[in-house]
Amino acid sequence: MAGNGCNGNGKAAGVVVPEIKYTKLFINGEFVDAVSGKTFETRDPRTGDVLAHVAEADKADVDLAVKAARDAFEHGKWPRMSGYERGRIMNRFADLVDAHTDELAALDGADAGKLLHLGKVIDVPSATQMLRYYAGAADKVHGETLRVSGKYQGYTLKEPVGVAGIIIPWNFPTMMFFLKVSPALAAGCTVVVKPAEQTPLSALFYAHLAKMAGVPDGVINVVPGFGHTAGAAITAHMDVDSVAFTGSTEVGRLIMESAARSNLKAVSLELGGKSPLIIFDDADVDMAVNLSRLAIFFNKGEVCVAGSRVYVQEGIYDEFVKKSVEAAQSWKVGDPFDVTSNMGPQVDKEQFEKVLKYIEHGKNEGATLLTGGKPAADKGYYIEPTIFVDVTEDMKIAQEEIFGPVMSLMKFKTVEEAIEKANCTRYGLAAGIVTKSLGVANRVSRSVRAGTVWVNCYFAFDPDAPFGGYKMSGFGRDQGLAAMDKYLQVKSVITALPDSPWY
Questions:
Q1: 487-to-18, 138, 207 alpha-carbon distances in Å
Q2: What gap in Å lies between CA 47 and CA 45, rounded to an integer?
Q3: Angle between helices 101-112 and 83-99 (to 10 degrees)
Q4: Residue range 256-279, pLDDT digits in tens
Q5: What is the DSSP string of 91-144?
Q6: Gap between the Cα atoms of 248 and 253, Å rounded
Q7: Which residues have CB under 8 Å from 494's CB, separation 6+?
Q8: Cβ pair 64, 35 in contact under 8 A
């Protein structure tokens, strides 16, 4: 395990630290210091050591970024160039990201504790796929011809909403950046992006690459900082036209309130989840075990759609429990730069302590801890894959989003009971079903209140598949052409035709 012993620089022996090139704010095409001159630390979760000091944006910096974005929107060429030309620039941007895959995966590995090899084969390639998808959509923004009554003709225009504020989380810094920015660029908007304070480094690198690709100055602005200052300044700004946010339900509420109190800007929220994975008696047990392990322990459980509630039908429950414990114990926790590791550290000390506190809640409320439940190293923020049984629906570990490698494993008898249990949550982001019965799959997928339902798979994302939540998991959709809706206004144009022979 990396972190046992340090070199002369204070870094743990054997820990690879990538070169960090960009730590300033990116406003109007330039890297600049914060107006206040303040910086904040971003730390390496493998060791707890400081990776870099990053310029800390607050209201004054957000004002400058919004002004740059507004000027670029009102007077610049980005919203006025053809969708085809925007798409060409976006594809050049994607080419540059592809060319820096190793470096960018290393930044997220060191900043967020993400597995380096998965960053190279999943995170960065998925991000460029997203960017290319919307590059292809940029020249396909269509209105409609309307059959209005009377001596008129009517049609609709879809126009960019203007300046979009984008606030992204720390669990997938690269993918979340492009999930939000790509459709906004395709629509012709300009953006002010606040990356999470825990993981600001790759977003700044992407700003640099965007400029190299030919994205005009002011179109993309990146302002690292804290939610209560930089984030709040974006959501309350009178010259920001919309806000897209991924994060906690609690912060989502604050954003809606701030948007309402300011200029009633449009809001799109992708919030928390407590996703059920429902496994029926006819499932292949070994396949189901591997799927459930992936669903909760992938990315150390720091996934909004993590399958944290696993419901297993009573006929295979005992076998499933036994094999799940064995599978969890074989899931290697280690340095994310080690290709043999299955899981790295939690993103920071706060999240590490939060997960451990939830594990204590589970034990204190009467759930049985079968495996894990402890730190997995003397240094860094590593936690063992953890499985609880004897979990009831009223326990904190069954109702609250933990955002860590903690599985609540429960038993059910009937399809009706499974549906009822799956819906027994304030969230509705995703769900999984494992069964060989087409009838059961169809019935349950139509009954579970969730924005995405996976059948005999999990984490099956694609740029063409809209993604978002029901209930307190938010509203609005990322991915798919539906994602462009939050960056577009619909305008109706009706023209008098007094002499037309056709009405």
A1: 35, 12, 20
A2: 5
A3: 70
A4: 999 999 999 999 999 999 999 999
A5: HHHHHHHHHTHHHHHHHHHHHH---HHHIIIIIHHHHHHHHHHHHHHTT-----
A6: 9
A7: 146, 148, 152, 153, 154
A8: yes
Q: What are phi and psi of 61, to 5 degrees?
A: -75, -40
- pLDDT per position as a tens digit, 369-416: 999 999 999 999 999 999 999 999 999 999 999 999 999 999 999 999
Q: How far apart are the first and last CA of the chain?
A: 76
- Asked whether residue 13 carries a pLDDT value surpassing 90, the answer given is no
Q: For residues 3 and 332, what is the distance between their CA atoms, to the nearest angstrom?
A: 16
Rounded to 10 deg, the angle between the 317-329 and 285-297 helix axes is: 50
> Residues 6 or more apart from 122 whose CB is under 8 A from it?
none
Identity at 30, one-letter amino acid code: E
| Closest to 345 in 3D by CA, of 357, 363, 332, 327 | 332
Tokens of 332: 């290697």
- Report CA Rg, the chain: 24
The pLDDT tens digits of the residues spanning 53-82 come to 999 999 999 999 999 999 999 999 999 999
Cβ distance 201 to 22 under 8 Å?
yes
> Which residues share a beta bridge with 26?
31, 222
CB 16 within 8 A of CB 103: no
- pLDDT at position 36 over 70: yes
| 347-354 average pLDDT score | 97
- Cβ 229 vs Cβ 58: under 8 Å: yes
pTM over 0.85: yes
Band (44; pLDDT cuts 50, 70, 90): very high
- Which DSSP category does 229 fall into? I
Which positions are annotated as active-site residues?
270
Q: Could you give phi then psi for residue 237, rounded to 5 degrees?
A: -70, 135
> Which residues are CB-neighbours of 110 under 8 A, at least 6 positions away?
16, 17, 18, 44, 46, 51, 201
